[in-house]
Amino acid sequence: MQALYVLLPLLAALSLSKAHEVESEDAIFDATGVPQCIQACLSDLLYAVTEMIHLQNPVAKFPGLCETYRKASSCIENQKEACVQTTLFEIALSGLDELCNDREEDLAPHKECLDRHADLILKNCDHSCHLTSVLSHLAENGDAEALQKLEEDHEALKKELSSLCTTFGCMSSCVAHDLNVQCSPVGTIITESLLRPFHTAATIFEEIGPRAKISIYRQIPPQCYYLTNLKDVQGIAEGRQPPKPSDLKPEDAILKEIRLREQQRKQKKAELEHLFLMDAKQGY
């Protein structure tokens, strides 16, 4: 849950289009909850990701982003003994880690195709999903004081999260679909990797059961529910749009899932009791 609420202010900071627009980098990091012990590690990565988010020659700049990420990752690793708060940010950066380190060989054969099609696909998807306009709006609240107030105002934060989650789901699925059309399976490779933090979170929610989701749903807007659903996250990587909030009725669905699991548990218990009684009657 904490990771989702760190995501918004971090993206607001990232959405600042130029480094000099950030009045105080340390203040921004403080406001977004980045521990001081790793702030220096993330400084260069902040601006490298900014350029990617604003779709400024992303294909050409991606190798440089990966190199910057590796340096940041190494820096964070070296801070582990002195800084115990690194796990959350390792999870948050796990998408870049997978894309830059694990999937590089998978992407290499498709470089020419990406060079031909990726920029136009990203621009077309942005036109449909309004990613850069949403981030530009967030950038208006990008100073440290505004970010701090936003984190403290739960309802305002939920409102901003709703637009961010909507455009994020739209953009991710659009890019996955359109890249797969032109350069299959690159769309799924890239999107699946970048969604890794949410895949990890959704997997945890699946394992601990539906009751945990109810408490999460009460704290986030309906537009973000799909990020806690493993099937929805996997669907985005395959190019499917996340379900619309009006179609979800998540708490009702979760309560139904709870009742179903309870029924299955009782049925299993009854079957075991029946088998035990049958064995007892037969003298076993």
Automatic annotation (TrEMBL):
The keyword Nucleus does not apply. Residues 140-167 form a coiled coil. Transmembrane segments: none annotated. It holds the Pfam family CPG4. InterPro entries: CPG4, CPG4-like. It comes from Haemonchus placei. Residues 1-19 form the signal peptide. The keyword Coiled coil applies. This is CPG4 domain-containing protein.
